[in-house]
Specification:
The structure is a homodimer. Chain A is mainly alpha-helical. Helices cover 53% and strands 11% of the residues of chain A. Chains A, B: Keywords: DNA-binding, Transcription, Transcription regulation.
DNA sequence: CAGGCTTATCGTTAAACGACGATAGACGAT
DNA sequence: ATCGTCTATCGTCGTTTAACGATAAGCCTG
């Protein structure tokens, strides 16, 4: 319950870090909305250099958020919906109101 | 639908960045599980220097994820469940299966 | 008022991120 | 076989982050 949560936290933090950039969110939006497969269109959409976009794609792929499938000379990227369950679960945990009881007059345990 | 989403992306990316560190996740877990209010107990729990923990708290507070309420000499930190709705909504968007249709043989428009 | 406790801030250092240009590799088409 | 296209990688630079110790500020208690 102590060391296990550390691994969980590392995993979730990695997922969150993958989402912690507007360009990557834009890429995810694009991948979700695009009916077919896209390659260099992502570069055109985000307005950054090709190498920069490739790096963002690499990060997203490393985090498991997207998956790339080679399609001839280009690569088909697609979302991996399962990747986010850990983060979604954590968010659901936070969103649960739980307790509004704050600042209970409960001093530190005496020695 | 184009420039508006940029702001959205910036907001969501900021929230994700706030979660993109194991220590901060641990703090959020702790705040959720703690019945009363805690102050320096967070320092003890995460095992980092007091100044480092204070910085993490500052980041979480700046992102709106937590709120601090002064309680005498100490400060009561509590979760702000409403902060995550934007990120949760985005995640729900991604989780939706949408389309598995990838790599449709739809070549680029000829010149 | 003095002491102790709790939290925030400052200054510093090492590591990681983001972005770019340039380059190299892979593949289909000609 | 050669060309053109698409993608990944490398090297670099500036900025940001994470972590720490030391220090200051705020507020109860005695």
């Amino acid at each position: 319950m102590t060391s296990a949560e550390t691994d969980e936290d590392t995993l979730i933090a990695g997922l969150a870090k993958a989402l912690a950039h507007p360009a990557r969110l834009q890429i995810l939006r694009l991948l979700r909305a695009t009916p077919g497969c896209i390659g260099g269109d992502i570069v055109d959409a985000v307005g950054l250099a090709q190498s920069t976009v490739s790096e963002h794609l690499r990060i997203l792929k490393a985090a498991g958020v997207i998956r790339g499938q080679i399609d001839g000379p280009r690569i088909c990227y697609g979302l991996n919906p399962d990747a986010m369950i850990a983060l979604s679960g954590f968010l659901a945990t936070l969103t649960a109101p739980a307790n509004t009881t704050c600042c209970i007059p409960q001093p530190k345990a005496p020695s």
